[in-house]
From TrEMBL:
It comes from Quillaja saponaria. One of its GO terms (biological process) is signal transduction. The B regulatory subunit might modulate substrate selectivity and catalytic activity, and also might direct the localization of the catalytic enzyme to a particular subcellular compartment. Residues 1-13 have a biased composition (Basic residues). One of its GO terms (molecular function) is protein phosphatase regulator activity. This is Serine/threonine protein phosphatase 2A regulatory subunit.
Length: 490
């Protein structure tokens, strides 16, 4: 009985070892987690195409060789030469050492360049096997564990895109050609979408999206172009891509507030939103409310604000009834202590108001101009200046003029305080222009607001004087009590 138990244990352990090793494929297709927060797993662990020897192991002598161009061989030999070239490109070179595999690196680079040229020329049609092998080779090269982000090493909050110390991908001489190859394959008229979608599947798209966290801006630019083309060509993937981008945004907003590719993803979404049909689906409106508007919350908004503002404006231009939702969302996430972020919000607010109709403006004008009044009195001159620049926009001035009975009383006090006490001369000049504009717009309303302001100031001054008198009486009573309780000691 004891021997049976021992044998059964041996059988179980051998099966588990086989199961653990069955997911390994070309090079980085195996699950290798070097850094938990930036891991990229296998492209398709259940696919038969993954059952190959690891590409990171140097191939036998003669495998890495420079093969003839497809145009130089007979038509019947082109498929086999193409597959051999794909095999050469599956070899992953070590770029950490410039002296290692120098010959292999150059052969692979030339082979990739020839493949790009062959696909771009459209000199032959892809068979299903060729497409499968091509996507497998692309997966081997691009799907990998990204290195730890620089902010995780330095402790900084955000990464400056213009910083010379960005972590650039050392294998870019090969990666660039692989991305170019994938892009040419997707846009090629010879690519059959029905066949291609078997290999460019949801898992492939999801792993492309994971790579947007790369710190290399060159890689993110290629990924942006490729994903945009996939969205346009593979209609079956469109809902999945939108949902997957949603999930990236949710994690960024509510968990990490750190991601390198938010700007590029928003650029893709800008084009997608521009193509939305009317009337707009409820799914798209929820995306605006739950993902785009909360993207104003993170501190690093300056790195992607231009793309975000474009997406928001596209929604309002598509459906003007969304203006009230957008403006109230901006007010919800309005910064309190970050003046540079406040300047960005005011710029975006002007773009949204430019597309806002009178009915939607009336719904949100009271909280909106209370916030603008606070901006007018900001001690940071750029915030006060940017708020006053709103009156340079003719459409916004027309909306204000239509609702001046409500708006002028809300901001009149802020204008008067600027006139009397703001330290910046430019703010003084702009405030004077706005006051004159209101005076010319409605003299009676302006004078009434001025009278109410003077009465309010007089009451405030009277209350201050009463408060000072009260404190003086209390001080006198306290001093008298101390003298009465004083005991002289001989």
């Amino acid at each position: 009985m004891f021997h049976k138990i021992i044998k059964r244990g041996h059988r179980k352990s051998s099966k588990s070892e086989l199961h653990e090793n069955s997911g390994l494929g070309y090079g980085s297709l195996g699950v290798v987690v070097n850094h938990a927060s930036r891991a990229v797993g296998p492209a398709n662990p259940n696919s038969e195409s993954n059952n190959a020897s690891p590409a990171s192991i140097p191939p036998a002598s003669g495998v890495i060789e420079l093969l003839p161009s497809l145009r130089e061989v007979a038509v019947s030999d082109r498929p086999s030469i193409f597959l051999r070239k794909i095999q050469v490109c599956c070899f992953l070179c070590d770029f950490s050492d410039t002296l290692k595999y120098v010959r292999e690196k150059e052969i692979k680079r030339q082979t990739l360049y020839e493949l790009v040229d062959d696909i771009q020329s459209g000199s032959f049609k892809f068979s299903e096997v060729m497409q499968e092998e091509l996507i497998r080779m692309v997966s081997v090269n691009i799907f990998r564990c990204l290195p730890p982000a620089s902010h995780e090493n330095t402790g900084t909050e955000t990464v400056d895109p213009e910083d010379d110390d960005l972590c650039l991908e050392p294998s870019w001489p090969h990666l660039q050609l692989v991305y170019e190859l994938l892009l040419r394959y997707i846009v090629s008229s010879e690519t059959d979408t029905k066949i291609a979608k078997r290999y460019i599947d949801h898992m492939f798209v999801l792993k492309l999206l994971d790579l947007f966290d790369s710190e290399d801006p060159r890689e993110r630019e290629f990924l942006k172009s490729i994903l945009h083309r996939i969205y346009g060509k593979f209609m079956v993937h469109r809902p999945f891509i939108r949902k997957a981008i949603n999930n990236i945004f949710y994690r960024f907003i509510f968990e990490t507030e750190r991601h390198s590719g938010i700007g590029e993803l928003l650029e893709i979404l800008g084009s997608i939103i521009n193509g939305f049909a009317l009337p707009m689906k409820e799914e798209h409106k929820l995306f605006l409310v739950r993902a785009l508007v909360p993207l104003h919350k993170p501190k690093c908004i300056s790195t992607y604000h231009q793309q975000l503002a474009y997406c928001i404006t596209q929604f309002v231009e598509k459906d003007y009834r969304l203006a009230d939702i957008v403006i109230r969302g901006l007010l919800k996430y309005w910064p309190v202590t970050n003046c540079q972020k406040e300047v960005l919000f005011l710029g975006e607010l002007e773009e949204v108001l430019e597309a806002t109709q009178a009915a939607e403006f009336q719904r949100c004008m009271v909280p909106l101009f209370r916030q603008i009044g606070r901006c007018l009195n900001s001690p940071h001159f750029q915030v006060a200046e940017r708020a006053l620049y709103l009156w340079n926009n003719e459409h916004i001035v027309s909306l204000i003029a239509q609702n001046r009975n409500v708006i002028v009383p809300l901001i009149f006090e802020a204008l008067e305080k600027n006139t009397q006490g703001h330290w910046n001369h430019a703010v003084h000049g702009l405030t004077g222009n706005v006051r004159r504009m209101f005076m010319e717009m409605d003299t009676e309303l302006f004078e009434e607001c001025h009278r109410q302001y003077l009465e309010k100031e007089a009451r405030a001054k009277e209350l201050e004087e009463q408060r000072e008198m009260t404190w003086k009486r209390l001080e006198a009573v306290a001093a008298q009590a101390m003298r009465d309780d004083m005991v002289l000691v001989n």
